[in-house]
Amino acid sequence: MKTSDTFRYALRAITSHRSRTVLMLLAMAIGTGSVIVLTALGEGARQYVLNQFGALGSHLVIVLPGRNETTGGAPPLLGQTPRDLTLADAQALRQSYAVERIAPLVIGAAPVSWQEREREVMVLGTTSEMQPVREMKMAQGAFLPPGDLERGSAVAVLGDTLYHELFGNKQGLGQWVRVGESRFRVIGVLAPQGQSLGTDMGDIIVIPVASAQALFNTESLFRILVQAKNHDAIPKAQAAIRKIIQARHDGEDDVTVITQDAVLATFDRIFTALTFGVAGIAAVSLAVAGILIMNVMLVSVTQRTAEVGLLKALGANSHEIEMLFLTEAGLLSILGGLTGLAVGMAGTTALGHAFPTFPIAAPTWAVVGSLLVALVTGLIFGLMPARRAARLDPVQALSRR
Amino acid sequence: MIELRNLCRNFQIGDATVHALRDINLTIDAGEYLSIMGPSGSGKSTLLNMLGLLDRPDSGEYLLNNSAISSLKESEQARLRREHIGFVFQSFHLVPRLSAAENIALPLTLAGVAPAERQERVTQALQALGLSDRGHHRPEQLSGGQRQRVAIARAMIMKPELVLADEPTGNLDRASGNEVIEALERLQQQGITLIIVTHDPLLGQRAQRQIRMEDGRIVEDVGANLLVPQRVFAQPSTVRANTLWGTSKFAPT
Question: Which residues pair with residue A206 across a beta bridge?
């Protein structure tokens, strides 16, 4: 029997049982569709997080006060720390030749007002080096001027959202805004850059670090961002930072030093595992679809027993009968897979429209993989019914009506 | 053409063993017109299935064109069926989703014949059986007689030497039954060996040679094959020897 005839015969069998076929296509489509949508979501989440961390800047090492202990203690981001990080600590880090730039950071919230408008925003106290470290772009004016870290001048850079909320269409550059009890002159506006680690970078005000310390009446830094000279210098910078701080803190290693790469790699691993996890869960529905295919094919073989007998009488051998039914199962699963692909793509596109900031796209391996799995599932689960058909005794098969 | 030697076939039904064929010896020449009659359960259908290679004997030998069949593999038997044997069934056995033409073409399709040649041969077959305007109809749109003629067209499309018909008129009224029988007999006149299993004595008597079966044995074999030129390779069997003396009861062994 010619392959093309085998396909045509199987196709006729499929198309002549509409409802049965539609049900099976539906099951297979749900399976492949969910694999595609779920992996697209997983991949989207991974890309999103990687983008967020990537937006922090490059070759970053972050120094947090407090030690990240594996046993007990409060997490370093929130808890009390034995010894604060100070501006002097930050400046000491320049000793290391592996360090290119340092940007100490003080963070707090304060009301910012201009004339009758007031808005509670996040206040970032930092230095001029923050701009290159975080790769911040300016929409208007300039970033904080370089100068003595300990001297806080009364200048401020506004986030895009904040600027428009305060000034509307008026020219805000050069105006004085009130932050808490102090007044700052607006010298620059940040270009819109969206979210970064959950902080809306448009809704912030950036002031010199010493001014922020005065504003919040604190000596300690929230963290220090350190930019290494290049990618290879990151481990050296990390070791140097640890050593310098230890020397300054009476020999106690009481800071947490994390590298951007390590964070990125960790999140990459977590989200890749997550993607595989959800793909695996979705694949269960493919297996269920496979079992449905087996079930329906078994019913089909039973219903078409007489036909199998006839084909045998007309000279089809067991192998040809097996191929006919296997082709039918394979065709059903491939058609189901393609339907699922369309459904999955439609779902992915719809999700992409619903969440424009979220980079949703099904990875190629998931698309190809789900189609292959659909086909293999169909063939595996189609094998048993096909074998059963092939093994039918022609005399008994023919006597069945 | 066909020679059966001491052919036996038993079926196990529950604890009981049913002897469907007991020690059948039979020789059939090419071009013969043979009817097999007998009561239900006498083994006539089993014999027909055996002749059509659909069933394997438990013991004994089946020689088709002087070569032993029993030792052949399943796929080789399938090929023999496809190329040498045509079947006509009581219940037609047409594939319901295929048109008449596609049903007729089925053996050609299985044999891997190219579509263009298939079309040509199917058109001829439809014409030969007066079904030219029915090619695109599906079985459910055809009358019983037309369905059986489609089945006959399918049986002869591979130009077999042997056509086996199991109660070909069993589901038909007298008029369409006659049409079907005449179609089969025309085939036989063209040189095909025709074997018909039937309950109907009128139908059975139309055959030149008539076999009666009872209880798994051939009990009567009437009508020596004198009208058809004898083939020299056919060995005379015990049954044939008996028939030369006219009707006789075959002694059970």
Answer: A124, A157
Could you tell me the pLDDT band of residue B251, with boundaries at 50, 70 and 90?
A: very low
8 Å CB contact between B86 and B93: no
| Least confident piece of the model among A135-149, A168-182, B230-244 | B230-244
In the block, tokens 């100068």 appear at A147
Interface of B with A (CB under 8 A): 49, 52, 54-55, 74-75, 78-83, 87, 89, 91, 93, 95-98, 106-107, 109-112, 154, 158
Report the candidate in A113, A123, A114 with the shortest Cα–Cα distance to residue A170: A114
User: Which residues of chain B does A2 touch, with a Cβ-Cβ cutoff of 8 Å?
Assistant: 109, 112
Alpha carbons B156 and A152: distance in angstroms, whole number: 105
Give A299-320 pLDDT, tens digit per residue.
889 988 999 999 999 999 999 9
Q: What is the pLDDT of residue A235?
A: 87
DSSP state of A230: S
Q: Distances in Å between the alpha carbon of A245 and those of A15, A79, A104, A250, A279? A: 75, 19, 14, 9, 45
Closest partner residue to A315 among B49, B81, B89, by Cβ? B81
CB distance A317–B89 less than 8 Å?
no
Q: How far apart are CA B181 and CA B204, in angstroms?
A: 11
Chain length of chain B: 253
Most distant CA pair in chain B, distance: 54
Mean of pLDDT over chain A: 86
Tens digits of residue pLDDT in B200-218:
888 999 999 999 999 999 9
Which residues face A110 on adjacent strands? A121
DSSP string across A169-215: TS--TT-EEEETTEEEEEEEEEPP--EETTEETTSEEEEEHHHHHHH
Residues of B in contact with A401 (CB under 8 A): 91
A 8-37 residues inside an 8 A Cβ radius of B: 9, 12-13, 16
**Residue A210 phi, psi dihedral angles, 5° rounding:** -65, -35
Instruction: Retrieve residue A395's tokens.
Output: 């005399």
- Please list every residue in chain B whose beta carbon sits closer than 8 Å to the beta carbon of residue A312: 54, 78, 81
**pLDDT tens track for B123-140:** 999 999 989 999 999 999
Q: Which of B54, B96, B110 sits opposite A394 (nearest CB)?
A: B54
Judged by CB atoms closer than 8 Å, whether chains meet at A316 and B110 is answered as yes
- The kind and range of the H/E element at A326 are helix A318-354
Task: Look up residue A116 and give its amino acid.
Answer: E
DSSP 3-state assignment of B224?
coil
Please indicate whether, in this complex, the C-beta atoms of A394 and B93 are within 8 angstroms of each other. no
Task: Kindly determine whether residue B93 and residue A318, on different chains, have CB atoms separated by under 8 Å.
Answer: no
Interface confidence, given as ipTM, is 0.85
Digit-coded pLDDT (tens) for A51-96: 777 767 778 888 888 765 444 555 555 555 567 888 888 889 888 8
Which member of B55, B78, B106 has the closest CB to residue A317? B78
Put simply, the answer to whether A318 touches B95 (Cβ < 8 Å) is no
- Rounded to the nearest angstrom, the gap between the alpha carbon of residue A119 and the centroid of all alpha carbons in its chain is 32
